[in-house]
Design brief:
- The chain is mainly α.
- The protein has one domain.
- Strands 1-2 form a two-stranded antiparallel ribbon.
- Helix 4 crosses helix 5.
- The N and C termini lie far apart (about 35 Å).
Length: about 120
């Protein structure tokens, strides 16, 4: 894993696209239920609006357990847009703020960090 992180850093410094590292966080039945609920709520990709919602994306990363299964922390996206935003976290933040609003975005992060 360390070697992969180094390769990614070098690619990033050269301005080349960087693939996301695979997460080591295990999924359980709550993750599966959360994903199904988000995709049922957002049947179409919230970015494109006309592609089916194939994946559920976490606004605040799922490593923050206080909001991991919160329905407000999920957005249904098509696979390609989820992959794009995974590789472009700054664009993800800007887009989430535009969709959810700054107050809701900050509220989720405050809960995640234990500030609320």
């Amino acid at each position: 894993m360390i070697g992969e992180a180094r390769r990614q850093k070098r690619a990033q410094l050269r301005g080349k696209p960087v693939k996301a590292l695979r997460s080591r966080i295990k999924r359980d039945s709550r993750d599966v239920r959360w994903s199904k609920d988000i995709r049922a709520r957002d049947a179409m990709c919230r970015f494109h609006g006309h592609h089916p919602s194939e994946e559920a994306a976490h606004v605040v990363p799922r490593r923050y357990k206080k909001v991991r299964w919160d329905p407000q922390n999920g957005i249904g996206l098509c696979r390609s847009q989820h992959a794009f935003f995974t590789e472009h976290p700054y664009e993800w933040e800007i887009w989430c703020r535009s969709v959810l609003g700054d107050d809701e975005y900050e509220r989720l992060w405050q809960i995640a960090r234990g500030m609320k």
